[in-house]
Amino acid sequence: SYSTATHFHTNLYFVEEKNKLSKLRRVIIDCDCFSSDFIVLISQLRELRHLSARINDYSREYMDKDIDHLTGNESLRSLILHIENIELERLLLIFSLMINLRIVDLNGTIDFDISHLLELERNYTSFRYMNYKFLSLSVLYVIGLSFFLNGFLLTRRVILQNSIGTIPSSIPIEFNQVILIVIDALRYDFIKPNNASINNNYLNQMSFVQELLETKPKQSVLFRLIADPPTTTLQRLKALTTGTLPTFIDMSYNFIGYEIEEDNILNQLIKTPYQRNISLLGDDTWLALYPNIKFKDLYVYPSFDVHDLDTVDNGILKHLWTVIENTTRHEQLSFIIAHFVGKFHLIQARK
Fold first, then answer.
1. What letter does residue 98 receive in the DSSP assignment?
2. What is the DSSP letter of 100?
């Protein structure tokens, strides 16, 4: 045991170094000392088990700065304090340094106002509520992210087996020439006949569509397609030619084309008994998707310059009629693709 009647706060480190007090088990202090003295004492004496002391902070003329050594004491078992006018926060700080305290005996008065105590309680309750709220939001975020990754970012499974013999050779050929015209970024209301009084510049600009629907209703039909994202060019071409739905992650390949290995309409046109010559005009994105297709006529142009509104479309118009006439003259079975991108470039340039 160790008993002292002096103010030991200023001499604590010296005494400990001189007398090796690190193994001290029991301390009885009979003097009026500050609460900061006990904070230092508890944090320094690691083997301290019993402490009895009198604390009087009433005559303090200054507030102690932050205590450097706030290591908890795991050995302290019993604490007897005779206190006079100690601040509640200092008492709570003393308790926070003791981990395995079993017996507490307090005798005296504690200097605090009830409003401050209620404020501490509100702060603690608010802090605990914020912790629960943050934890709940984190759990909801993880659940939502898992649903998003499993539902929106789907993984495509490619079937590399191609169908063979799906078109019997006994079926007669109805058309020697098939022309597929793709107008990038063409909206449905741009070509839909509109008889309303609304006067917009983009309405009823393709009157030949309405003319075909009225004069040849058995040979023409107008459908509205609602495309799922991604609606980038490469993924939409892939969907058109393979009949599959692209995943959202495929959008990252829009600028880096890759060869389509699954079954598609172009390979079927080449392998069927009615082999057709395929011609391509316009957007060069098709070459990235089908690099191994031997096109009979090939007039493609770079399509990533969105400020160029005319080069691709003018190139198609320049060569399209020649390609049509050549295949008609030789009575060849042909499949002609004309992909216009001027409309798409106009939209991107206006952004």
1. B
2. S
Question: What DSSP line would sit under 60-79, residue for residue?
Answer: --S-----S--PPBSS--EE
- Whole-number pLDDT of residue 7: 44
Matching residue, tokens 């003295």: 37
Residue pLDDT, tens place only, 181-225: 999 888 888 888 877 666 677 777 788 888 888 899 888 999 888
pLDDT value at residue 146: 85
65, 95 Cβ separation under 8 angstroms: no
Query: SS3 for 33?
Result: strand
Mean pLDDT of 124-142: 78
| Core vs surface per residue 239-259: b (16+ CB within 10 A) or e | bebbebebbeebeebeeebee
* CA distance linking residue 325 with residue 328, whole number of Å: 5
Domains of the chain, by residue range, sit at: 2-112, 177-350
Proportion of the chain in helix, strand, coil states, percent, rounded to 5: 40, 20, 45
The token pair at 265 is 């309409």
Q: Can you count the helices (H) and strands (E) in the chain?
A: 11, 9
What is the maximum span of the chain, computed from C-alpha positions, in angstroms? Answer: 121
**DSSP class of 162:** P
pTM: 0.56
Count Cβ atoms within 10 A of the Cβ of residue 180 and give its class: 0-12 exposed, 13-18 middle, 19 or more buried: middle
What is the CB-side half-sphere exposure of residue 132 using CA atoms within 13 A?
A: 6
Cβ contact 112:136 at 8 Å? no
The burial of 210, by beta-carbon neighbours within 10 Å (0-12 exposed, 13-18 middle, 19 or more buried), is given as middle
User: 291 vs 71, which has greater pLDDT?
Assistant: 291
Query: How much is the average pLDDT of 293-306?
Result: 89
- CATH number listed for the domain at residues 177-350: 3.40.720.10
